[in-house]
Amino acid sequence: MAEERYDIAIIGSGPAGLQAAINASIRNKRIIIFGTEELSHKVVKAQKVSNYLGVPLVTGIELKNAFQDHIDKIGIQITYERITNVYAMGEYYALMVNEKMYEATSIIMATGIEYTKPLKGELEFLGKGVGYCATCDAPLYREKRVAIIGHNMEAVEDAKYVNELAEKVFFIPMFKEKFTLPADIDIVEDVPVEIIGEEHAKGIRFNNSELFVDGIFIMKDSVMPDQLVPGLELENGHIKVNRNMETNLPGCFAAGDCVGKPYQYIKAAGEGCIASLNAVSYVNNIKEHQ
């Protein structure tokens, strides 16, 4: 059960999400913004940014620091939690973080474009032996065989947690960083190509082998927006929006790289501004008719 209902929830802490948060905050809306401690990891990686109005010829780190300084002065704090699902509930949206739920009248998607392409069979078996949240669903696989396909270091901690419940855990690392796991977790050094099964997922096919398990967790940095928000309409792999940054779902807006090219920081910030202004108007209209 959510403790309070926010006016606007923003998913993503890049230029689009931060600009949306700034605009909504200035207009006295109760907001919550979900992101990472890196704030905007794509910005940080830029060696030189030459086309951001007002801050010429800066490094990505300098631009990121300017973003941080701006939100600090306004009093905006990032919530460092990963949203696993968003559900349209009619009058509001329910945003799920493991077993916790947040509520918001309106949402702004600013999730970027770094999505991991689904494996063959992944979407077919989602909810049928395949899941994205190990801490949510691990108890379902108590004393069973579980495979974890990890795309980030967070998956290592998830594997340790699942290992406390499952009979056997197999870890398939999809990243290059060094990590340490308990000795009883088997590490599979092969590339997964397909989730196999019939009515229920029963295993993973690799380039050179197959592994049969009862459950499979795929731990990604981000998932496709229509998997995150059921019913969200996409167009050419991006969230479909109009000039007001409205999606096909009432009260759901989107901005930044997730809505399409060009993938430019200043374009993302501008769209975040538009999305926020229209989300504010949407919330105001809802309140006037309550």
CATH topology assignment of the largest domain: FAD/NAD(P)-binding domain
Using only C-alpha atoms, the radius of gyration works out to 20 Å
Number of helices: 7
How much of the polypeptide forms β-strand, as a percent range? 25-35%
User: Which series of helices and strands comes N to C?
Assistant: EHEHHEEEEEHEHEEEEEEHEEEH
Give a quick account of the main beta sheet: strands, pairing sense, barrel closure: 7 strands, mixed
Shape designation: globular
**Unreliable stretches, pLDDT < 50, 5 or more residues?**
none
Give a quick summary of the entry.
Helix content is 26%, strand content 26%. It is α/β, with parallel strands linked by helices and 290 residues long.
